[in-house]
Structure formats: C-alpha cells, structure tokens
Amino acid sequence: MRVVFDTNILVSALVFPGGQGEAAMRRIVEEIDQLVLSRPILDELLDVLGRKFARDAEELAHVAVFLSELAVMVAPKHRLRVVKDEPDNRILECAVAARAKKIVTGDKALLALKRYEDVRILTLRDYLQIA
C-alpha cells in the first residue's frame, strides 16, 4: 500500500531510534508498505534536519540518497490549497498524485480532515496499529 509520511514522521524515523517513527520506517524497508515522496517533502525534511538537528551536508546527502532509493518519487502537477499551512498542502498533493491510500501525520489540521479524496489521514499510532 502506498503511504505518505509527513516531515515530522520522517524526522522521528531518522533522528530518534527505537521509537514509533522507526517502526513505521521499518514497514517501508521491509516492503510491507511503499513510501511515496515528492521533491517539496524531501526538501523540507533536509531543511529541518540541517537547521534543527545540525546535520551537515554529507549527512543530508546520505539521507536524500537513502530516501530517494527507498521511496517512490512523484511530481504533483496540481497545487492544492486545502489547509492553511502550505507544507501540509504539499503532503496532500503528493498523496493525490501517487494515489496513496494513507497519510501518516501528527499535524492537527491534516488529522481534522480524516480523509482527503480517497486518502485516509492517520496518526502514527493508528498507522502502526492497523498494520
């Protein structure tokens, strides 16, 4: 099943070993689910890792390569304006473009939607429990 992780889920998976984020990423590595990313999501992730977690250029390059090889990359053609926060709209665009079944997020505005078109929007906990 195709799934989109928002930036905070990806950060959790990459920065905090042993947590639920890592468990979610393990589902991708084990090919239980298929991660879908877009360039804007990857760019935001790299920016956050560099600014907030002091990752250097070499580490960021490794993350970019790892995720690019692990995930299916899509290039959304349509811009959405569903929620106020623009990066959250990029998550929705990616999911729609990829025909993903789920978005995993901790973002309250996205979670309040519960569903967008055919995409279910879940917390990390719910994602891991329904698996």
Give the topology, please.
Blueprint: E1 2-5, H1 7-15, H2 20-29, E2 34-38, H3 39-52, H4 57-70, E3 72-74, H5 86-98, E4 102-104, H6 108-113, E5 115-116, E6 119-122, H7 124-130
Parallel strand pairs: 1-2, 1-4, 2-3, 4-6
Antiparallel strand pairs: 5-6
Helix pairs in contact: 1-2, 1-3, 2-7, 3-4
Note the beta-strand portion.
15-25%
- Architecture per CATH nomenclature, i.e. the level-2 architecture: 3-Layer(aba) Sandwich
| SS-based class | alpha/beta
The first-level CATH class is given as: Alpha Beta
| CATH topology type | Rossmann fold
**H/E order of the elements?**
EHHEHHEHEHEEH
When the domains are counted, the total is: 1
Largest sheet: 6 strands, mixed
How many helices? The count is: 7
Spatially, the strands of the biggest sheet line up as: 3-2-1-4-6-5
Query: What is the average of the pLDDT values?
Result: 95
Helix content: 55-70%
Specify Rg, calculated over alpha carbons: 14 Å
First-to-last CA distance: 11 Å
- How many strand segments? 6
